[in-house]
Amino acid sequence: MGTPTPHAHAVVHLDAVAHNTALFAAATDAAVLAVVKADGFGHGAVRVAGAALAAGATWLGVTTCAEALQLRAGGITAPILSWLHGPLEDFSAALLAGVDLSVSAREQLRAVAACAARLGVTAEVHLKADTGLHRNGARPEEWPELVRLARDLAAVGLVRVRGIWSHLVSTAGDTTRAQVRLFDEAVEVARGAGLRPPLRHLANSAATLGAPRTHYELVRPGIGIYGVEPDPRHDFGLRAAMTLRAQVILTKRVPAGSGVSYEHDYVTDRETTLALVPLGYADGLPRAAARHAEVSIAGRRHPVAGRIAMDQFVVDVGDATPRTGDEVVVFGPGAEGEPTVADWARWAGTLPHEILTGIGPRVPRRHVATLTEELSLA
Ligand SMILES: Cc1ncc(COP(=O)(O)O)c(C=O)c1O
Asked: What topology is assigned to 242-377 in CATH?
């Protein structure tokens, strides 16, 4: 965390994380891996991981070995899969910490095995098949050689193949069906080579809730753990985990015709009151949202006036009379009429994922387990 903005914070509702995790667990017979990469989508990885594990997740997923080690340092002992590695990656610390590693290519598998040999341990690996996303994962033509190498390294105790996995392109439909077919073929090839990995995994949040055929032995929800509906056409009853709050730090009455913020993109059309809020794009509020964005003050929505600056923005509250110190809800669950993170994403032409992971280090995260605890913080 950087130096905090004293008049803004993000409340992270761990009870919402628990509710969402339980909802995923109830939707499948598979085990649940909660994706807590990018510091738990900006919510604080260790705290989110603890809440998700207490609510039914048994695995955690992260992008990098460094993220996995941060979880271990935070006291998390559950299985962790780390899935994106550089070409010169030193896997030693991750292997010693019992972190499972995704492997997409033979060179990578050799590097993991060499590291395991040096340390005298067996590396737990998940072989990744590219079933159409065309990011990492072995292509179908590379797959047979990858699984044969894995089998040979398993035979000498350097690796254990714990999983075979892939990642989906989109939420549903023909692409998913084609990916499932390619995935099943990849598993067959591995079995043909003598591998019997206990875990096959493919599903993200949307597929966990909407495509049972993708579940296999493990599902990997990410965004839904944080309460964003993964398929906007359905309301699965997920609860938003983050509420971004700030205080009004100044108000002023201005006449009609007053330009507001840089370049005067916004000009008041009547005498009005402006309220200043100490959050800006350095804190992750997207400038692109400014023309449409609203915030909630005292239960009423008001428009953002003019450009969002690096550290602050202005709200046109009309004849409302907020006072310095009054609370501004930038986004939250939406239950009290406040904007949601999905609203901000729509206003900015982006995804809720980008908004959540972009909330910057100046914004302190306050983790609360219950509403009562939250009220005592307010
Ligand atoms: C490899 C992998 N699996 C699962 C997920 C979870 O996807 P979603 O956030 O759509 O649930 C992600 C990304 O978040 C991912 O990168």
From this structure: Lyase, Ornithine Decarboxylase; Chain A, domain 1 (2.40.37)
